[in-house]
């Protein structure tokens, strides 16, 4: 696991030390570090900065591979792009890289708002930024995007939450709970005090639940995984989905999933989601994947209607929610089209 969360696999990345950091829960992280990577050059007037936080189980290297490049909407020759790793993802401060006694199962509870407040300090203290041309993110990254737009409306000029909501639905919270329970169901999990590699059965169980809801039925029915070189659906599930999760730390994944499950951008508005979304000043494109089983189109559409001047943009992919990984050229092209239009607005 230590080797997985490394510069060799997910670098190059840098770290920003925020010191002792007070959490929304009233607890604190001692010596919080955010891992981040930047691409492109910041304009003299600092008008071209984009922030792109990671999603569940993702890292900045995954975002770079799937969304950045010459000729893409997120082109480092035009924009200064900051990719930032969530607290708990194994690169930023996490259960797996924190020293005892606050490591592993003793790591404090984190909220999406904690990530956003920490990222606000990163852009201000490290880069001197008071405005962001765009904040975007997929899935959990969309949750962070909504929190950014609600919490710091005068900082975010444009927002593109992709395949995620500002507040979790009952169904979504149930789904995420099954992911957590699958990991914890492994007898080797030992309440979070497992030996390295011991809880792999729980991770495999979790991976298959993730695949069942994250991909579309048509992906399996039409063997759309064949171009990736897999010989059967079982080969794909083992060699692609299990392979993605097995190197990761179970406590890290549970921490991330707990943030996902408990997310609510309206918390600072006393739970009033109408008031929270009405406070957004950013030009916002809410981007939905039509076949998404994690964050269904109708849930995104309902929230989008509450955001002043916003637009609902739709993309389609046989990969469902997990089109986010950039495996579908059609999805990639559609996302670039929407982001280009938003950035030109």
Walk me through what this model shows.
This protein is an alpha/beta fold and 345 residues long. It is built from twelve helices and eight strands. The protein has helices spanning 7-10, 60-67, 112-127, 140-151, 170-184, 200-214, 217-221, 233-245, 250-262, 273-278, 297-304, 329-344, and strands at residues 14-22, 28-39, 49-53, 80-84, 134-138, 158-162, 283-289, 311-315. It has an eight-stranded mixed sheet, sandwiched between helices. The chain is globular. It starts with 6 loop residues before the first helix and ends with a helix. The model has no long low-confidence stretch (mean pLDDT 97). InterPro entries: AB_hydrolase_1 (IPR000073), AB_hydrolase_fold (IPR029058), HAT_MetX-like (IPR008220). GO terms for molecular function: acyltransferase activity, transferring groups other than amino-acyl groups. Residues 70-325 form the AB hydrolase-1 domain. Pfam families: Abhydrolase_1 (PF00561).
